[in-house]
Specification:
Blueprint lengths: L9 E2 L9 H8 L3 E6 L5 E13 L18 H4 L5 E6 L3 E7 L8 E11 L1 H8 L9 H8 L2 H8 L3 H4 L11 E5 L7 E4 L13 E4 L10
Antiparallel strand pairs: 1-7, 2-3, 2-7, 3-6, 3-9, 4-5, 5-6, 8-9
Helix pairs in contact: 3-5
The protein binds a DNA duplex (13 and 13 nucleotides) through strand 4, strand 5 and helix 5.
Length: 214
DNA sequence: CAACCGATCACCT
DNA sequence: GGTGATCGGTTGC
């Protein structure tokens, strides 16, 4: 049994995700991403969401859904509140949450969390030594960036693509402990070429665990 | 410390 | 056969 660190933790319901991803993204900042390891010993991994990006279902050429529904991106067109995990650059996974009612695409990409529980496990998953996470800089490199985040939490496409996030017993879910960011900053999205001018990246202003300062 | 480069998978043309 | 919502190591100021 893992000692609960967070009190009064509420798992976000499916209705939370059934809205415009720009609204969902803003409200996701400050929430807690919880990953439960059920293989072997029970353990919780968690972190506070401090950086996200939005990909729109319409008028956004950078979105995987831009050219319509395919086998790869079908989760985006399915019911809200499910994980869309894809593999990129031959090396990394990225985690997204499907938004909008069924039939409409639109999602939020998780770009960075501030780690809270299970840092030792995350370091091992990332191939980092124990002393590697003794500094704040080291801890930042654990989970800052979409690929690092997935590696730290052991999130793969095979295991999580299409997985529901809104059940209290979901291996991956979002919890609300009541914390709210004081200020949210908007910027352009990172690492894209099409529709790159849209201000669809949202960060907790001043947080040191975001992947890239502007 | 910025700039480049290699890794090498899933998808789409 | 080209490209990408990335990262980490190396190079060279």
């Amino acid at each position: 049994m893992v000692k609960p660190i967070l009190r009064k933790e509420r798992v976000l319901p499916q209705s939370f995700y059934a809205r415009d991803p720009r609204i969902v993204a803003r409200e996701l900042l400050g929430k807690i991403l919880v990953r439960t390891l059920t293989h072997g010993v029970q353990q919780r991994l968690s972190g506070r969401i401090v950086e996200v990006e939005v990909y729109l279902g319409q008028g956004d050429l950078a979105a995987h859904s831009a050219a319509g529904k395919t086998e790869r991106n079908q989760v985006l067109f399915g019911p809200p509140g499910h994980a869309y995990v894809y593999f990129i650059y031959g090396a990394h996974y990225c985690l997204n949450f499907s938004c909008m009612p069924e039939g409409n695409a639109g999602c939020v990409l998780l770009r960075s969390i501030e780690p809270i529980e299970g840092l030792d496990w995350m370091a091992k998953a990332r191939g980092i030594s124990a002393e590697g996470i003794s500094s704040e800089t080291g801890r930042r490199l654990l989970t800052a960036g979409p690929g690092r985040l997935c590696q730290a939490l052991g999130i793969t496409r095979k295991q999580f693509n299409g997985a529901p996030l809104f059940r209290p017993d979901s291996d991956l879910r979002i919890a609300d402990d009541g914390w709210r960011p004081r200020e949210i900053a908007e910027t352009e999205r990172i690492g894209i070429t099409k529709s790159s001018h849209l201000p669809l990246r949202y960060v907790v202003a001043g947080n040191r665990f975001v992947s890239k300062q502007r």
